[in-house]
Amino acid sequence: MISIAGIIGAGLFVGSANAIEEAGPAVILSYLLAGTLVVLVMRMLGEMATANPDTGSFSVYADRALGGWAGFSIGWLYWWFWVLVIPVEATAAAAILSDLVSGAQWIWALAVTLLLTITNLVSVGNYGEFEFWFALIKVVAIVAFIGLGVAAIAGLLPDSEVSGISALWQPDGFMPNGFGAVIAGMLITMFSFMGTEIVTIAAAESPDPRSGITRAVNSVIWRISLFYVGSIFVIVALMRYDELDAGSYQSTLQAMGIPGAKLIMDIVILTAVASCLNSALYTASRMLFSLGERHDAPRAVNRLTGNGVPWAAVLASMVVGFVAVLGNYLLPEKIFGYLLATSGAVALFVYLVIAASQFVLGRRMRADDEQAPVRMWLFPHLTVVVMAAIVAVLVLMAFDADQQQAVGLSVLSAVFIVSAGVYVHRRHARDAELAPSS
Known about the structure:
Blueprint: H1 2-5, H2 10-23, H3 27-51, H4 57-66, H5 68-101, H6 105-122, H7 124-153, H8 178-190, H9 198-203, H10 209-238, H11 248-255, H12 261-293, H13 311-330, H14 333-341, H15 346-367, H16 381-398, H17 404-434
Helix pairs in contact: 2-8, 3-8, 3-10, 3-15, 3-16, 4-5, 4-15, 5-6, 5-12, 5-13, 5-15, 5-17, 6-7, 6-12, 6-13, 7-10, 7-12, 11-12, 12-13, 15-16
């Protein structure tokens, strides 16, 4: 279930409205382009992960392929990304709960964060159990939305104000803002796919990681096609892109005459937010634990409970994340926005490192005639194309006024962490040389 619905986050339900506003009905192409890139990156990660499952996932593979500095850098950048997801999702959950139940937002933010921290501390099975139910709710919601949408398109909903697919070219064509807007929409949608790679981290703690990762990677095409492209098609087919006043999904449900559309979407978004926060704590702690195992983080983070849960890594990630939650309430909005922007392009950095690592390790595997259950298509040519595409997206972001701050501050944070990685690994090498031989 993590592999099926792990990629359905609040970004799809909330962020899609911004992408649709940018590109119009042609946002379908934006999702197809972003989805294709994610499918190829997951294929590359799947090859490495099925050959050598590890909870450090791509950070470990970067270490082996590109050097210790690369594993250090991408591991800490990824940890930082997910730690900053905690305040964003906790605040979003608190806003919904405060609206539904009443009460101070900071109390709800604290309650949600503590509840999911406790579940992560008890056992990895608890994380999986919570994610199973979160995923099930999201899958049922998306499938029901698509089913209702198809019925509305066919004119089978008696109370629906919309039908047919004429909104695909109304009010001013399929691509009202040109192909440049499609690319801009792709930049927005890219980040709603972040988290697809979590399944390779979670599977490493399962009894049969190779088969779990293989199934997840092989199913990523239909998952993206159904959940993302399918649901977005329903929205832009039924609704004019300039009429999504209450958000894309809620506006569409209201137009279809579905009673309680706002409450339904509040519950679904709350589930997606809780799922993201749960995954953020899990993923950040496992990455920190992996960094500790490779001496790239303090060894204290490798302390385990009797159930094998890295409790010190979970608590460290929770504490930093909750300090950021407090910062969201106490710091001026602009300052907290800068903090978030330092991880704005980390998804693309991760994808680029995955591709570069697979390029190196894939050549080694093929030279040694090593077989993996998942193989990258058209290697090495398609891997090189993917790396070039990711670099091109980063360049486009640098020229997009709405994305420049995220790119600039993300690059600064990356330069700082890479410099730290180079320094740490040079020191490790120097210490190893000075150590007396046994």
